From TrEMBL:
UniProt protein name: Coronin
Tagged with keyword NAD: no
GO molecular-function terms, A-Z: actin binding
DUF1899 domain location: 24-88
Keyword Coiled coil: yes
Family per record: Belongs to the WD repeat coronin family.
Biological source species: Mus musculus (Mouse)
Region annotated Disordered, chain positions: 1-21, 422-455
WD repeats: 97-131, 147-189, 195-227
Composition bias, Polar residues: 423-443
Length: 543
């Protein structure tokens, strides 16, 4: 169209309502800007003699108290147990945990006891160790239990995620063995169950959330889902386009993720439906490197981390139920390649800095263990409820006898908010009514109200009784010691570095803010109770 004041321009095409634009659809996510923050030099573990083993294991296990790492030892296998706060250069004569006659291949901390660790070795045994709370002054050679049953070396150990004293081991005799440690015997000569469905060496094991299913990968490149109590194969993947090396249950999403190689030897990951392993839901080629890919899944945030052996980078994705299921977020890059990796349980994270995951990279080229924190950038200093949903607590929900008899139960959950307690306790009997239980704790305020209640005014007084009981329960919970991620803030050692001082300052600020909120709630509840009492007295005066 032409007019006197305009130039001739080509008309732009008009998109119809049902016509798609070429712009990619925007996807909102609170984890889009997560970044990796490596620890400073003084907060790393230096001069650590990391193992030179070529096995494709993590070689590192971490809990809120200790970091354990497989090391070199003449005349047998050993590993180091270093207190988490003991950073810096390690003494070359630092005591080791040694007792195996062959190289240690895998170590795992007990998820319900931060001072108990399991190790397996080329000597075909598994050993359970009690780690003393004080610092080791000499080599620890006395184990608590020894498990004997495998005919060849043992490559993997896994604790059951919800049951106390149940341990799984996988050996080069192609067997997975289930051990019950709930005995007084120091030497256990046989497992309670042996799973014989594999035709080659087992490469990885993973449990679903409640531990009722076990997923494995084998050197025959097949993925199997096994009933761990019956030992029967429930699902088996024979897909030729993906050769699986590691497998992982993705929390409660009813999906599996495997890493391995494609037909063209590219490193690849594949997502599977737990109920149908015939064809993967999606596959993604990553690169042409040869190192094994270790997958880690955070069920609280639905984030997937892919760590490559021999790489310096860590890729992370967000997993969803809807297609395309895997959404690439970004990548942490480093020039230092990792030989192994350890991860901190969620209860050991620093919530004051919005840390949602923490890796411990084993860097053999520098004899260094480097912590890398995954941080969600937030401006607010208060506790971020949306990125810290309830997480699994360090308390079993089943005994070994209950699980072996066929019971399944999900993990007991806890909040990471400083000063909070367990959210549920499924191992306890059903809770009694709150009013009854509170009468035993604080009967005095309720006794004067029993007599008028018999004269026809039961409803108002039962309401007041319930309110008083609720207030008393919350009041008693608030009187307990101030815990920050499981540690008493008044018993913490004084800070030694500026970083520790800042962390303690932030924790104290958070604690002060929490107490102020608690005080305001108490004042509001007190005024409500006073008003209820006043109304009831007026009602009684009219009667």
């Amino acid at each position: 169209m032409w007019n006197g004041n305009s130039k001739l321009r080509p008309s732009s095409p008009v998109l119809k309502p049902n016509q798609m634009s070429w712009h990619p659809q925007y996807r909102s996510s609170k984890f889009r800007h997560v970044y990796g923050k490596p620890a400073s030099k003084e907060n790393c573990y230096d001069s650590v003699p990391i193992t030179r083993s070529v096995h494709d294991n993590h070689f590192c296990a971490v809990n809120p108290h200790f970091i354990a790492v497989v090391t070199e030892c003449a005349g047998g296998g050993a590993f180091l147990v270093i207190p988490l706060h003991q950073t810096g250069k390690l003494d070359p004569h630092y005591p080791k945990v040694c007792g195996h006659r062959g190289n240690v291949l895998d170590i795992k901390w007990n998820p319900f006891n931060d001072f108990e660790i399991a190790s397996c070795s080329e000597d075909a045994t598994i050993k359970i160790w009690n780690i003393p709370k004080q610092l080791l002054t000499r080599n620890l050679t006395t184990y608590r239990k020894e498990l004997i049953g495998h005919a060849r070396r043992v490559g993997l150990v896994e604790w059951h995620p919800t049951t106390a004293n149940i341990l799984f081991s996988a050996g080069y005799d192609y067997k997975v063995m289930v051990w019950n440690l709930d005995t007084k015997d120091s030497v256990i000569a046989g497992p309670v169950k042996t799973i014989n469905c594999h035709q080659d060496v087992i490469l990885s094991m993973s449990f679903n959330t409640n531990g009722s299913l076990l997923a494995t990968t084998c050197k025959d490149r097949k993925i199997r889902i096994v009933d761990p109590r019956l030992g029967i194969v429930l699902q088996e993947a024979s897909y030729k386009g993906h050769r699986a090396n590691k497998v992982l249950f993705l929390g409660s999403l009813k999906k599996l993720l495997s890493t391995g190689t494609s037909r063209w030897n590219n490193r690849q990951m594949a997502l599977w439906d737990q109920e149908n392993l015939s064809v993967p839901l999606t596959e993604e080629d990553l690169d042409g490197s040869s190192g094994v890919l270790f997958p880690f899944f955070d069920s609280d945030t639905s984030m997937l981390y892919i760590v490559g052996k021999g790489d310096g980078n860590i890729r992370y994705y967000e997993v969803s139920m809807e297609k395309p299921h895997l959404t690439y977020l970004t990548e942490y890059r480093s020039y230092n390649p990792q030989k192994g990796i350890g991860i901190m349980p969620k209860r050991g994270l620093d919530v004051s800095s919005c840390e949602i995951f923490r890796f411990y990279k084993l860097i053999t080229t520098k004899s260094l263990i480097e912590p890398v924190s995954m941080i969600v950038p937030r401006r607010s200093e208060s506790y971020q409820e949306d990125i810290y949903p309830p997480t699994a607590a360090a308390q079993p929900s089943l005994t070994a006898h209950e699980w072996l008899s066929g019971m399944n139960r999900g993990p007991i959950m806890m909040s990471l908010r400083p000063g909070s307690e367990l959210l549920d306790s499924q191992t306890l009997p059903p809770e009694r009514p709150l009013s009854n239980s509170m009468v035993q704790v604080s009967p005095q305020p309720l006794e004067p109200m029993k007599q008028p209640a018999e004269d026809g005014d039961q409803a108002p007084f039962s309401l007041l009784e319930e309110k008083l009981a609720k207030w008393t329960a919350e009041h008693h919970l608030g009187e307990k010691s101030c815990l920050t991620n499981g540690f008493d803030v008044f018993e913490c050692s004084p800070p030694k570095t500026e970083n520790e001082l800042l962390q303690m300052f932030y924790r104290q600020q958070e604690e002060i803010r929490r107490l102020r909120e608690l005080l305001i709630q108490r004042e509001v509840q007190t005024k409500q109770l006073e008003l209820e009492i006043k109304n009831l007295r007026m009602a009684l005066g009219q009667l």
